[in-house]
Amino acid sequence: MADAPPAPPLLLASTSPQRRAILEQLHIPFEVVTPRYEEETSEIADAVELVRRHACAKVRSVARDADERPVLGVDTAVVLEGVIFGKPSSAAEAEQMLEELSGKTHVVVSGLCLRTLAWEDVEHEATRVTFRELTPRELGTYVATSEWEGRAGAYAIQGRGASLVRCIEGDYLNVVGLPAALLVRILAERFAGVYGFG
Fold first, then answer.
1. Is this prediction's pTM over 0.90?
2. Residue 103 CB: number of other CB atoms within 10 A?
3. CA 84, CA 45: separation in Å to the nearest integer?
4. Topology (CATH) of 10-190
5. What is the distance between the alpha carbons of residues 140 and 156, in angstroms, rounded to a whole number?
6. Cβ atoms of residues 103 and 96 within 8 Å
7. Residue 43 exposure: Cα atoms within 13 Å on the Cβ side
8. Which of 65, 67, 75, 171 is flagged as catalytic?
9. Residue 75: active-site member
């Protein structure tokens, strides 16, 4: 019996090292391409609509590079009481964000778009994250690590940011940067057995 052909690598429209690491962890073959899309974040926008729109725009910006490969785009936002927290531009802004998140539950929302020449799936995932009450010293110590740089909500749960968190409800990997359970479900439905799922 002939071996099954290798799974076609996903084309990941992202430069995020976290997303690459999660795909490697799941043994999903992929290649990276930088999306040709500039994100615009509005603090009063609907977060679900925003991340879904950004994920699709990332995918469509690289679609001509795809040939017949499936293209994956993901966008993630941190939302507290209806306000979207983007990536802080300074240490002072990072500390302010973390102070606002302290002792409260926020939601990490990711939009995911998976597209082929024949179809496009657009879905989203939400994970609730509750922070401990943080002291000014803890806030200052964390900000001094610079781990907040380039992170929506000013923290990285897979790093020292884990020390800020009291509990989470939902997909942990979604908080890291890619809603893995959602992606696996779509791959199992659309490519049963091809990527090892379904």
1. yes
2. 12
3. 8
4. Maf protein (3.90.950)
5. 15
6. no
7. 8
8. 75
9. yes
